[in-house]
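Hey, can you fold this?
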Amino acid sequence: MKKSIIGLAVVTAIPMFSTMQAVAAEDGAQSIEKIQVTGSRIKRSDMENASPVTLIGADDIKAMGATSIDSVLQKMTATGGAMTNPGVNNGSGGNARIDLRGLGSSRTLVLVNGRRMIASGTGAASTVDLNTIPVSMIKSVEVLKDGASAVYGTDAVAGVVNIILKDDFEGLDMNVNSAITGEGDATESSFDFTVGSSFDKGNIVIGMQYTDRGKAKQSDRDFSSCPIAEGANGLNCNGGSPYSPGGHIWQGGVIGDVNEDGSTVDADGNPVTSGLAPTDDGLGGLGGLHPYTDSDLYNFAPDSYLYTPMERLNLTGLASYEISNDTRVFTEFTYTKRWSQQQMAAQPVWFDFKYNENMGDSLLGQTYVGKVDRNGDGLADRDADGKYITDTLNYAYGDDISYGRRMSDTGPRYFEQSVDTVRAVIGAEGFVGDYSWDVSANFGRNDSVDKTANLHNMGAIQEQITEGTFNPLDQAAWTSEDFRKNVYTEVNNGGSQLFIVSASVSGEMFELPAGYAAFAAGVEHRQEKAWYTPDSLTAQGLANDPMVEPTAGGFDVNEAYVEFAIPLLADAPFAQNVELSAAIRAFDYSTFGSDETWKLGLTWKANDELMFRSVVSTAFRAPTVSELYSGNSPSFERVTFPGAQDQAEVTVGGNSLLTPEEADTFTAGIVYEPEWFDGFSMTIDYYKIEIDNAIASVNEQYIVDQCLATTANADSVLCQSANIGMDSTGRISFNNQLQNVGAEETSGVDLNLSYSFEAAGLNWKAGLDTTYLDEYVVTVLDDTVDYAGLITSNIGGYADLKSNFTLNAAGDNWDAQYQARYISGMDSYSCIGKDTCYAPSTPTVIYHDISGSYMINETVALSAGVNNLFDKQPPYYTGNNDSNTDPYTYDVLGRRFFAGVNVKF
């Protein structure tokens, strides 16, 4: 458009993960294009912002050998917690998520070209799967590390990731990339092309990217080749599952767990305490019935992926056309098709049956140490100290048998996802006088089919046992052709849909002594819905696990916002420019009603070298469709309790009465670019985020400690709703649905140093990006934990210090880059309060990466690099997540080589 394309703002060369600095105009430009920076909707002629914004360029992405943007964003020092990535096999669903400040991916808003991206992935997705963003089409990524609900609405609590696509590209750009680890696995190949053309009144850009990522297995690395257990003599491979091939018959029956009438309280109304005799683990069936020992534990590592495979196709189209000097229409289209897989050990199954003559005499003569009920009251007898009285007992016909088995007879579980995500935007923008305006419609839809193969119809198996047509004690029966009829593939369907209509206007209002006051205002109507339909057998609870209920629901919201930029001082002593920014957004949700959120910001530019900035704001996160309407389903979480299995069966689900999370955010920082040190810049920013009314489930271990380890809290609301119990196999089960019962508070400091200089005939850029985490305090009910400096078993790590150092050197036709990533040591959450712990902490970990590129000519360029140059292995810690480490935090692949060819016309 002729009124905007007069001059061009130019971003100076910035090292990877550097904070945005002020932008200078090119010499000779008649005027400066007004641009919009993430964190504000006011178009302006510079990029000075009260909020800290980090810029990642296309060259930075290429230097890391990245074919997916998640592998770049997750290395930022401002990230943490449980960021789903290809190293997460159990429960990842093939998704990739970003988690700013470790506050959870649902509290980071992802935009594409400044507009919301459709929630994507498997099931009733509620966050953005970064696989839907084609790396080859990315011009830059702006990461706002501040609350921005007043500007963008819900979810912008920890910050905003705005991915800007190449909408003005001309020519042809093709890339072929490949990668492989030092172990020869997890191969990756990618091909992409981008073609663009400009004509008299418009521009069109089309892009395609195809990526094929291979697998690695846990058995392919020494650190993950078996599940590690801690013993008196150190670490050993006895950390496997008690659900073992050949079957496991647990001793003790159900005496002591329930009364004869099946109730869980005794005659006085006190809960019946569960417990197992600690001296006997029952019988193992592999190789013939025998007393169960550690040698019967099942090593599930060989069947589990360490790095998950995926195929992905991204198609992108962007176009614009000037219908007049003052009006332009535009459109954006993206489509992603993803095929992803995970693999886990064969399904563990468990059930109870009554031993009878039709099952043979293999159990007769077998003994076990078990609890006894000599007085016949249906409860296990205890001695004067309250301990169970045990005796050596013989199995007999009529006994109730608790049986578990690892179904290696039918093979490992295969998880597959097929996900289609489409996003289309159409709109118009232009000028009316000196005011700019835009209107747009944004539609997105995500459809997924996920399958799990080699599951077993336990309802049918249980029925066959009752009818006497299947004998679980006959090993041959489990591998017979008739038994194969009980094996099935679970097929689930899910999806989400987004529709937004929005309009905005911005411009200058009036002139003040210090400059022009500017504003932006707009309205938005948004509709969201999501759904999940489980497999019919799963929905009926016939798949061994409890039944999974469907999810279906939606909401709509109307919003209006206004934002101001008010210049207060200009060209005054120690106040070259002082500006106040303010924003307020009102919203009305169909699910919970109306409210508002606001922001106040101040930039104080003392002179050409020094600027102070600060923002105070409120933010909110509305409950998602999944959180509101998700049906109940089982989740298996790690807990510790004497005599219990290490995974509890937890029923989770949504709550239609949820209300929004509310947050107060504060940032304050300094930008320093000294004239005496040419090429150097520094930013330092303090942040603090406080979240109230947080949507959370209670910590699983807390429920066990409060409701199972003691009977004192049996009548509490928590324990009544949890309905906790433990069966004779030591499996704990309870309910833990979402509630507004939490509060979170985090604070820390971001430091960025950048230096560009010339030496030895080369152009150099050095950058240091560091985040210090002072606190991350999570409170649910009266359970409070400060996760700063801790690493957990299920929500990742919260290192109190993370730092990235980058050094880049460039000649006329080549460049080379070195990067070091520092993650400070962390203490294991599982070791808190314990006098002894084998591996109570992780060491400091530093990864070294190198890369370079060479331009053969103006058309062809080569690139190559090595990530994790020194093959640093991930650390072991007590209470680890998976693969004996934390794949959310650490690199599980080891040394990885990548190379690529770029062709431009």
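Oh, and this one too while you're at it.
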Amino acid sequence: MTTVATERTNTPHFVDGAALRDALCESDYIADDELATVVHLATVLDRPLLLEGPAGVGKTELAKTLAEVSGRRLIRLQCHEGLDDSRALYEWDYARQLLHVQMLRDRIGVELAEFETLPEASAHLAAQDFGLYSETFLAARPLLAAILSEEPVVLLVDEVDRTEESMEALLLEVLAENQVTVPEVGTFTARTRPWVVLTSNDTRELSAALKRRCLHYHLGYPTAERERNIVGARAPEVETAAVAEVVELAGKLRELPLRKSPSISEVIDAARIAAVLAATGRSASDSPELLYSALLKYSSDVDLVQGRGAPAKAPEDDRAVPRPTVAARPANTTTNVFRGHGGKGHGRS
């Protein structure tokens, strides 16, 4: 059996990238023209959007804000190692199936009593359709839930690079055809066409088959100006001077070979710490180590920064500089479709 549903779209579409950018800005997501235009194209062309870049630059938040400004429900699939189809697509509700069989037991006994031999009773039973394998007994997981949804949704497949490559194959039918096939039932076609956003922290190269089905955008750390705007929008209680100071510090830290560079959300936390210190008469510039609790999350990074002194100053003795105990961030091997700037400097926590 094949289930085909009529698509309905009753959520607002944006006229152009500028209109989408303004809508995102009203929800405190600061996107530039290029990023907003790519997102707009993905919605108009009904193509999945693959966002790649370092952790903490606003990829997940973009999908959440897109759902908010478009009036669509957000369905999120959080990827992890070991994720399989029973957690991503569907599984059968065996408890309900068993209960259904128990409710039919007496009726089945009456019908089978009419047959004199066991083979006849078995053949009759095998020919019956008890409805056990139908949509009623499907426990829909995020991918199937997005396909079956009667209302338009934004489907977020978060951190797809954390799964095995075999999991990518399960996504292809959804990404390319907007449908899911259940062998026991048939093919479910999207009842409303979902907007699909995939994110990757670029920890491994994704398959060419998956990339071929998506529009691609690399989201890097924002420029200092844009990050000041982001922090100002998310932490309006912090003075402009303190925001600028924290953003400058974060920028200098990102130039070091840290195990984990400060994310935008961590910069926002650091700005709020600076505001609390200012209220007590202390300056964050005089005690930058107090900001490290928000900006640096590994002791090796703290040792690296403190061993070299303030990030803006050269170390007095290079031989005394502790080296990181783990490899620096892996090189970004993602193919950059926007050559020259590649979407860098865009995003928000």
